[in-house]
Design goal:
Layout (H helix, E strand, L loop, with lengths): L5 H22 L17 H16 L5 H15 L1 H11 L4 H23 L7
Helix pairs in contact: 2-3, 3-5, 4-5
C-alpha cells in the first residue's frame, strides 16, 4: 500500500464510513428499514456480479501485485453494483424523481470514475 495524500486518506475513510452508515440505516434504523423488502431483493449477486468483476479484472488489469489486483476487483464490483438497483427500480415501476435522479447520478459517477482510472496516467508511474 502507499500513501497518496492526507486528503485522499480522509476522503476514503469518509466514503467507507458513510457507506457503513447508509447500510446500517437501510437494514436496522426505523423508519428507513421499514421500506426494505427482502422478498423483492432477489438479484443473484454471487452468480452475476462477483464473476463479472473477476473477469473484468483479469482482462483489464495488468499489475501483478495482490493489493492492486484486489483494488481493481473492488472497482469493477462497485461499477456493477448498480445493476441490482436498476433491476429493483424496473420491478417496482413507481419510481420517485429523487430516486431516479440518485441512481442516474450514481451510474454516471461510476462510469466516469472507471474512464478516469483507465485513461489517465497514474501518479505511481512517474
Amino acid at each position: 500500500m502507499y500513501f497518496v495524500s492526507f486528503y485522499n486518506t480522509i476522503m476514503k475513510i469518509s466514503f467507507i464510513g458513510c457507506t457503513i452508515y447508509i447500510i446500517y440505516l437501510m437494514r436496522f434504523k426505523k423508519p428507513y428499514c421499514l421500506s426494505y423488502d427482502p422478498l423483492a431483493d432477489d438479484f443473484p449477486y454471487v452468480k452475476y456480479l462477483l464473476p463479472g468483476a473477476l473477469i473484468a479484472t483479469i482482462f483489464v488489469h495488468t499489475e501483478t501485485k495482490a493489493f492492486e489486483i484486489i483494488w481493481s476487483y473492488t472497482i469493477w464490483l462497485e461499477a456493477g453494483a448498480i445493476i441490482p438497483q436498476l433491476r429493483m427500480l424496473t420491478k417496482i415501476k413507481d419510481v420517485e424523481n429523487i430516486t431516479g435522479n440518485y441512481v442516474a447520478a450514481l451510474g454516471l459517477y461510476r462510469f466516469f470514475y472507471i474512464c478516469l482510472l483507465y485513461t489517465s496516467p497514474s501518479p505511481r508511474d512517474s
